[in-house]
Amino acid sequence: MQTKKFLLSIGVLAVFVVLTISSSAFASTNTVNYYGWCCSGTTAQARLRALPLSSYQGSCDILSSTSPSTYVNVIGWTWWQCDTLNSSGTIINSYNFGGYAPSGSSNGDVEPANYCNYNYSPPRCGYTVKASGTHDFNHNGAVNWRPYHSTTGP
Question: For residues 66 and 107, what is the distance between their CA atoms, to the nearest angstrom?
Answer without folding.
Answer: 10
